[in-house]
Specification:
The complex is a heterodimer. Chain A is an alpha/beta fold. Chain A has a domain of 159 residues: Rossmann fold (3-Layer(aba) Sandwich). Chain A is built from eight helices and ten strands. In chain A, the strands form two sheets. Chain A has a six-stranded mixed sheet, sandwiched between helices. A four-stranded antiparallel sheet of chain A has the order 2-1-4-5, with helices on one face. Chain A is globular, with a radius of gyration of 19 Å. Chain B has a domain of 189 residues: MetI-like fold. Helix content of chain B is 74%, strand content 0%. In chain B, helix 3 packs across helix 11, helix 7 runs antiparallel to helix 9 and helix 9 runs antiparallel to helix 11. Classes of the chains: A alpha/beta, B mainly alpha. Chains A and B meet through strand 6 and helix 2 of A and helix 8 and helix 9 of B.
Chain lengths: 263, 305
């Protein structure tokens, strides 16, 4: 069976001043269409490096990455990226930021009116229609991150890549954005790869959790299937024994099998 | 109550509504004393503002007063041949600015003409420097190879005193006006190039990653990301350049003659009109200050942080 996203024997070696540094080795992962994958591990384990490989921001030194049977070579708009630091352009309004992406992907074949409608629809999806004409400096951190998500989704990417998208937010904002992300993903059926180091976030959102060993030369340690029914509700899950069992499994991996040595 | 005169209608009123007759209270309740303005909220705010304004205005005012006093002491201690004092200079300035735009032939023009002549040369030289320097700065910042190529040339030419370029200008253009514009151009181009290039190389990697993920064209990268991101640095470069240009123009005009503030200073020195030299110094300072402040104002508009 063909997977939507295939990673085979991927390896990433950086040339540093102190010689070669192997960040990732023997990465094998198959992602089905519509699946939500969380990448979890201690900091420095190369989860972001793996995401950058899929994004095409860096090229793997070895191995093959296939998306829909096409080799990933360089970045492209078929992979929507949501950055940790939102990365909105401060001189463009929310509309302008999303429109830049929409124009790039659909500008050649659609009219201005259609592009505008697409942009507005994307902002509507993240419930930001009211802040459309504000500059990023005028809205809160959570709203900025939602614009980032809208920008990524507006391109109708094959895969949505998220690099700790909620890491810089406070706990309450994070929870509400997680709920929104669940709604958006179920509405759009987006295939998603999300880097996180929040165990609850990983269990709540994903279909499978990819747990990575500590670097250097990190690889995939275990893959945990999260067979909780959707739609998921964080309050109901708080009482759910299976949820706690899964959560315990991730914690066990992170804090027993892969103890991070104190720096 | 004053005397009441009855007519038909008022009688009617009284008859129909006997109970509505108001009885004046024995003693009217005393009107509350109106709050003095400076005790109301707005008054207090005004007072605070006044106090703040006074506190921030006081040091400069005292400074300027001391400066004028010092000037007075220096000038009066020199006796007959000493510097003109503030009062004498002020009188002379009033006379001078009464008719700033007279024109009595090539070497005798009003102060207004001279200021405009200097501003024109600065504008032309500085404008050319921006036209050449900004694109050059962008290219140097974007392409490592080019940067390596021009870096030694810039390092060599930048420390050269601006007036050293004047003879070359005179030789090439055979005329004084383009020669002084050339001096402005060559001395004000370096800050523009260097600041623009530094700005380009400091564009946050995040923004460039966005450009790469979206796969934007070079033109889009330039207009939507590079240019807006570099603009604050660019404005700094322009401000520094403008400062240099204004410094250099007076010196250049002293040598080239004809019109302009620099020429005027030298001309008044030859006439031994020291008041006018002092006035010229103030004019140069004030015009420079205005130019600087105008650019600061523009720069603020492009600050997104």
């Amino acid at each position: 069976m063909h997977s939507y996203l295939q990673i085979e024997n991927a390896e990433m070696v950086f040339n540093t001043k102190k010689g070669k540094f192997t960040a990732l080795r023997d990465i094998n992962l198959n992602v089905q269409k519509g699946e939500f994958i969380a990448l979890i591990g201690h900091s420095g384990c190369g989860k972001s490096t793996l995401l950058n490989l899929v994004a095409g921001l860096t090229d793997a030194t070895n191995g093959v990455l296939l998306l829909n049977n096409h080799e990933i070579k360089g970045p492209g708009p078929d992979r929507g990226m949501v950055f940790q630091q939102h990365s909105l352009l401060p001189w463009l309004t929310c509309f302008g930021n999303v429109h830049l992406a929409v124009e790039r992907v659909f500008g050649a074949k659609e009219s201005k009116k259609e592009l505008k409608a697409r942009t507005e629809a994307a902002l509507e999806l993240v419930h930001l229609s009211h802040a459309m004409h504000k500059l990023p400096g005028e809205i809160s951190g959570g709203m900025k991150q939602r614009v980032g998500i809208a920008r990524a989704l507006a391109m109708e990417p094959k895969v949505l890549l998220m690099d700790e998208p909620f890491g810089a937010l406070d706990a309450l904002t994070r929870a509400s954005l997680q709920d929104e992300l669940m709604r958006i993903v179920s509405e759009t059926g987006a295939t998603t790869l999300m880097v996180t180091h929040d165990v609850d976030e990983a269990v709540l959102l994903s279909d499978r959790i990819v747990m990575m060993t500590n670097g250097p030369a990190a690889t995939i340690g275990e893959i945990l299937s999260v067979d909780l029914e959707r739609p998921r509700d964080r309050l109901a899950l708080a009482e759910n024994a299976h949820y706690h069992h899964l959560r315990g499994k991730v914690l066990e991996f992170l804090y027993q099998k892969q103890v991070k040595k104190a720096a | 109550m004053s005397a009441v005169t009855f007519n038909e209608s008022s009688l009617d009123q009284v008859m129909n509504q006997p109970n509505s007759v108001k009885i004046e209270p024995a003693e009217a309740p005393r009107k509350p004393r109106p709050t003095p303005f400076f005790e109301t909220e707005r008054g207090k705010a005004t007072l605070d503002w006044l106090g703040g304004a006074l506190r921030s205005a006081l040091p400069p005012v005292i400074g300027i007063a001391l400066f004028i006093l010092l000037w007075q002491i220096v000038s009066s201690s020199g006796g007959e041949s000493g510097l003109p004092g503030p009062a004498k200079t002020w009188e002379s300035a009033k006379e001078l600015f009464a008719d700033p735009f007279y024109d009595n032939g090539p070497n005798d023009k009003g102060i207004g003409w001279n200021i405009l002549a200097s501003l024109y040369r600065v504008g032309a030289g500085f404008g050319l420097a921006a036209m050449v320097g900004i694109p050059l700065g962008f290219m140097i910042g974007r392409f490592q190879f080019l940067s390596g190529m021009v870096a030694p040339i810039i390092s060599l030419l930048r420390p050269v005193s601006p007036l050293a370029w004047l003879p070359i200008g005179l030789y090439v253009f055979k005329e004084t006006d383009p020669a002084s514009i050339w001096v402005i151009f060559i001395s004000s181009i370096w800050p523009i190039i260097l600041n623009t290039a530094a700005g380009v190389s400091q564009v946050p990697q995040d923004y460039l990653n966005v450009a790469r993920v979206l796969n934007l064209s070079e033109w889009k990268i330039f207009t939507k990301i590079l240019f807006p991101a570099v603009l604050p640095h660019l404005m700094t470069g322009i401000r520094l350049s403008m400062g240099v240009a204004w410094l250099v123009i007076v010196a250049a005009e002293m040598l080239t003659g004809g019109t302009g503030l620099g020429f005027w200073v030298w001309d008044e020195w030859n006439n031994l009109n020291v008041e006018h030299i002092l006035i010229a110094i103030f004019i140069v300072g004030i015009v420079g200050l205005i130019l600087e402040q105008a650019l600061v104002l523009i720069a603020k508009r492009f600050n997104y942080e």
